[in-house]
Structures are given as C-alpha cells and as structure tokens.
Amino acid sequence: MGRTKLAVIGGSGIYDIEGLEGAEWVRVDTPWGAPSDAILTGTLAGTDMAFLPRHGRGHVHSPSSVPYRANIDALKRLGVTDVISVSAVGSFREEMAPGDFVVVDQFIDRTFARDKSFFGPGCVAHVSVAHPTCPRLSTACVSAARGAGVTVHDGGTYLAMEGPQFSTLAESRTYREAWGCDVIGMTNMPEAKLAREAELCYASVAMVTDYDSWHPDHGEVDVTRIIATLQGNAAHARAMITAVAPALGGDRAPCPHGCDRALDFAIITQPDARDPAVTARLDAVAGRVLG
Ligand SMILES: CSC[C@H]1O[C@H](OP(=O)(O)O)[C@H](O)[C@@H]1O
Ligand SMILES: Nc1ncnc2[nH]cnc12
C-alpha cells in the first residue's frame, strides 16, 4: 500500500493554508517551466500535504497564464497522489447560491489559449476524461464540507471559459439554458485533463461567489463582490481541508476508479518511434509506464 500525499490548489482569494506541521515553501523546477509559485509542504493530522496557490501569491497569473503543466508536474514530482482544486465560480442555478460549494463532476472545456497536454509529437497519448474527477476523492470532499456545516451540491457541470473578461449575457444564458451547465469558472481546464494524464486523483470544489450575468435580480458580476464572498467562505474551505486530510488517511489503496492507472493503455507511439528528448520530459508524469 502506498502513502497518500494530498495537494490543494488554491484559487482566487486562497494563497496560503494554515495549520501545516513542519510547513516549508519549496521551489520545484519542471521541464515545463516554473509553477505558479513555490509549494507549501507539511503534514496535517498525519497526512502529507502540499499547497499551491494557482495564481501565485499576490495573484500574479491570469487564468490564461497559469502554468498548468508545470503546476501538475511539480505536484507529481513531489509525490502527490490526490489533488483538490478549490475555485471561485459563478452559478447558473438559483439553488446553487453564493456561499454554497459544488463538488463538480463534469466539465465543458471552452478554453483555447492554453497548453492542454503533456504529450505531443514524439510521444502521443490519449487518456479518457469521460469521468474527469475522482469519485473517491470527491466523496471525501462532500463529506468533509458537509461536516463543516457548508451547503454542498454533490455533482455539477463546470463551464471552463478562457476569460479574463466575464461572459456576455447571451453567453451566460446559452451556457445555462441550452447547455445545462451549473457553474462557470476560468481555471479547471486544462488542470483536470493534465491531472488525469499525470495519473493523479482530482476533485474540484467550486465555491459559488455570484450568479454570473443571467439572474434578473442580481447585478453584473464584479471582482470586488467575488472576493468579499470568498473571504466570507475562507473559513469553510479551511474547515473542509482540515477534515478531508485525516479522512483520506495516510495509507492509500489503489484508486478504485483507475485514476492512478490512466496511462496503462494510453500511449500510442511505438517504443522505438518515441523521441528520447520528449520522453525525458515525461519522467515525472509518465515514468511509471515509460520506465
Ligand atoms: C477573481 S474572479 C475570476 C477568477 O476567479 C476564479 O479563479 P479560480 O478558479 O482560480 O478560483 C475564476 O476562474 C477566475 O480566474
Ligand atoms: N461568473 C464567473 N465567471 C467566470 N469565472 C468566475 N469566477 C467567479 N465567478 C465567475
């Protein structure tokens, strides 16, 4: 049995986590460049932890400039097994109100200006993202957040937009009415796809901050209000993380959903046709199957 190492990627308004024993910010180099920031490591209730602020401390990265590949590679390089993404989102559902958490289980990826794969010419792979989040980790997040007194919606579809501008009214209505999306944000893609390629269990905890622009009784979305709502929510996010770490436990059985074996049948480039320079870059992400 392996050891659990749980990472939290903190979104807007979450640039640090408190209470880690032996806390230390470590810099990690990757073949994909520098991650968004140094990574805070330590232990929480006996579980090894890592924390990475997605936009960097001080919020220096826009959703399009977040180095998603470097972030996931760096976590994998540190031995992370499970990743919880914490993000701010707009809601398309009356009942998913500001302050609620939605543990997302589906995405529609509308981003277009980001590197979306570790693989490419010289080593091609196709993983399945039919079920892009890990049910085991997501269930642990739902229980931990409910235990912390949060209103939690178990499942939902997240529309990932490029940004950085918020949506037009026509877009907001289309995503809600025609496409059946539940929440909208700018950062969970390609993060979730890359986590799958790196064989990491990934769960997305979306914290509702606004009703985007569709709701007739709420004004247009703005960043000041989003941050104010997030600050009201920070204690809930902290309580969820504090509860989820011991619930996962230090000993880790293989993922029953196969997240940690996603590359078993994914690499299609024949061994003798693989570019050694390309496979060298994949040492952390795909070392298990590339040898
Ligand atoms: C601060 S408003 C828009 C910004 O907030 C969300 O960030 P994150 O997903 O990292 O919490 C949204 O996706 C935008 O990047
Ligand atoms: N309405 C919204 N659209 C996109 N990203 C968001 N993050 C928080 N609220 C958002």
Automatic annotation (TrEMBL):
The keyword Glycosyltransferase applies. Keywords: Glycosyltransferase, Purine salvage, Transferase. It catalyses: S-methyl-5'-thioadenosine + phosphate = 5-(methylsulfanyl)-alpha-D-ribose 1-phosphate + adenine. Substrate binds at residues 186, 210-212. Pathway: Amino-acid biosynthesis; L-methionine biosynthesis via salvage pathway; S-methyl-5-thio-alpha-D-ribose 1-phosphate from S-methyl-5'-thioadenosine (phosphorylase route): step 1/1. The keyword RNA-binding does not apply. Residues 5-244 form the Nucleoside phosphorylase domain. Phosphate binds at residues 12, 54-55, 87-88, 187. This is S-methyl-5'-thioadenosine phosphorylase. It comes from Pseudaestuariivita atlantica.
